[in-house]
Amino acid sequence: MDYVGRVPAPPLDRYVDDVYCLTGVPDHRRVTVPPMPSAHLFVNLGAPVRLWDSDLSVPSAVFTGGWFMGVWTRRFHFEYPARVRLVGVHFKPWGISPFVDLPATELRDRCVPVDAAWQRCLDRIRDEAGDLESPDATLRLLEDELRSRLAGASSRGLDLVQHAGGQLETSHGAVPVGALTDAAGVSGNHLAAQFKSHVGVTPKRVARIYRFARLILAVDAPGPVDWAELAHTAGYFDQAHLSKEFKDFTGLTPTEYLALRRRFPADQSFPPMPAE
Question: Is the distance from CB of 160 to CB of 186 less than 8 angstroms?
Answer without folding.
Answer: yes
